[in-house]
Amino acid sequence: MDHLSFKTTHVNKANAQKNWVIVDASVAPLGRVCSQIANLLRGKHKPSFTPNSDCGDNVIVINADKLHVTGKKMDEKLYIRHSGYPGGQKQRTLREQMNRDSRKAIEHAVKGMLQGNRLGAAQYRNMYVYAGTEHPHEAQQPQPYELKNL
């Protein structure tokens, strides 16, 4: 038996098999959709998952404007930001955010589920969110991804 046949291979940026998948955001609530998008971006669904490299897929999210949440989150969930000056705290509800730009709600949720370092920023750049069903990535031939455990 060859002792080299048991060599462990690690996935890196050069040999990662990155696919293009398309996810419909209107089929489940915000958190359930975004947690599965974060797993796709990290590559945790692949047997060759390596936690310290960008081995996840490129994800296209459609129907961000048809996103729904449970309970009173539309009026009670707040997005808070601060300018850095005294009295510079501003807040916006989820309903106001959806009326302003529905893509930002998904982007904010997924970004919070990724790592807070350069690797997480690189994985976040592999996500493309669109309000409707139209997207400019037909040349990449994205495969539809069926969300699980909803």
Give the key terms.
150 residues; alpha/beta; four-stranded parallel beta sheet; two-stranded antiparallel sheet; 28% helix
Task: Provide the fold topology.
Layout: E1 20-24, H1 30-42, E2 58-62, H2 73-76, E3 78-82, E4 89-93, H3 94-100, H4 103-113, H5 118-124, E5 127-129, E6 143-144
Parallel strand pairs: 1-2, 1-6, 2-5
Antiparallel strand pairs: 3-4
Helix pairs in contact: 1-4
In helices, the fraction of residues equals 25-40%
DSSP strand (E) fraction? 15-25%
Uncertain runs with pLDDT below 50, 5 residues or more? none
Order of helices and strands: EHEHEEHHHEE
Largest sheet: 4 strands, parallel
Q: In DSSP terms, counting alpha (H) and pi (I) runs of 4 or more, how many helices?
A: 5
Q: Strands across the major sheet, in which order? A: 5-2-1-6
* Whole-angstrom Rg: 18 Å
Query: Which structural class best describes the helix and strand composition?
Result: alpha/beta
Intertermini distance: 46 Å
Query: Please, what is the average pLDDT?
Result: 93
Shape: globular
State the total count of DSSP E strands: 6
